[in-house]
């Protein structure tokens, strides 16, 4: 019949939701349309073309790079944390005869494995998996590695007291693995190596662990240096690749002639602004603007002159999209789209009329036009974020058409059309 037992919470489902929430929060911090100052873009271009070591990106993008890289490196870090638990868990299953160690050393190994190594490794893996976007995930992995190293040095010290020597090469594998596979920045790798050397040298100086031979020190120093150089090379490569991808994203969303956003960027941004308007209960202006008699400019003065005119108009239009949720884009040709957040009808009409006046004030020659100057017409509607983009396009275009029919060089705000 029916199962009347109360539903039990799924612990795994809770952890999955926690991890997913962290990834969603990290993604929400990145706007679908990247906005970067020109100086930052130029710096990224130099970085993408450079070949030397690279340890830092411009301040505006460095936090985004670090967060994205932590998420990218998360799976490898989790596997790196789980590996010691698997290795020492397997050793727990082997009899002392197979391990070929004195009974006292085997007991100590099992004690350290159960009480220190395996719990530390599993805790580091869980924290890293749950918090992929946080800097604490890397700190936990590094701290866990040093705890494992300390436990291994304790094993070496106690084993020496029982007349048994544990190979020190296993300890060296910890900082090398963290440097090569952990996805740490170069300065963090140097800190990990310094921690390793402090533990090893400290144990030798205090007489707890057997001293290393000169050849062993040379070998360890060489491996630490190689792993540090590998970390530097990987970090440089990752940063340069990230800068190139960021530039590519900018190019995909930017109109090269006017430096305004393009249609694709505008449509992505509209979805973000519309959702925010619905949450805040705000209105926003959606407008289309079109240069008047622009074909006459190209026909009389040539396309080079026309491109220059578009660039100048783009500078004026760019002043109307300064707030985070405002955006002005070139849709194509001489047509532009304007989105102004938290804008009522009165303010919208004032802003559009100011645009018309400023473009006319540029004084760009258009000898064959009625005013002998380049002018612009604009038509817009007010939306609460619940209208579709296609409907707003049609509605704003209808207002723009009325301005064109009325003589151009003007602006008009009207209602949204019926569906």
From TrEMBL:
<dbReference type="InterPro" id="IPR050469">
    <property type="entry name" value="Diguanylate_Cyclase"/>
</dbReference>
<protein>
    <recommendedName>
        <fullName>diguanylate cyclase</fullName>
        <ecNumber>2.7.7.65</ecNumber>
    </recommendedName>
</protein>
<keyword id="KW-0548">Nucleotidyltransferase</keyword>
<dbReference type="Pfam" id="PF00990">
    <property type="entry name" value="GGDEF"/>
</dbReference>
<keyword id="KW-1133">Transmembrane helix</keyword>
<keyword id="KW-0812">Transmembrane</keyword>
<keyword id="KW-0472">Membrane</keyword>
<feature type="transmembrane region" description="Helical">
    <location>
        <begin position="214"/>
        <end position="234"/>
    </location>
</feature>
<feature type="transmembrane region" description="Helical">
    <location>
        <begin position="161"/>
        <end position="182"/>
    </location>
</feature>
<feature type="transmembrane region" description="Helical">
    <location>
        <begin position="138"/>
        <end position="155"/>
    </location>
</feature>
<dbReference type="GO" id="GO:0052621">
    <property type="term" value="F:diguanylate cyclase activity"/>
</dbReference>
<keyword id="KW-0808">Transferase</keyword>
<feature type="transmembrane region" description="Helical">
    <location>
        <begin position="78"/>
        <end position="99"/>
    </location>
</feature>
<dbReference type="InterPro" id="IPR000160">
    <property type="entry name" value="GGDEF_dom"/>
</dbReference>
<feature type="transmembrane region" description="Helical">
    <location>
        <begin position="111"/>
        <end position="131"/>
    </location>
</feature>
<dbReference type="InterPro" id="IPR043128">
    <property type="entry name" value="Rev_trsase/Diguanyl_cyclase"/>
</dbReference>
<feature type="transmembrane region" description="Helical">
    <location>
        <begin position="189"/>
        <end position="208"/>
    </location>
</feature>
<feature type="domain" description="GGDEF">
    <location>
        <begin position="282"/>
        <end position="416"/>
    </location>
</feature>
<dbReference type="InterPro" id="IPR029787">
    <property type="entry name" value="Nucleotide_cyclase"/>
</dbReference>
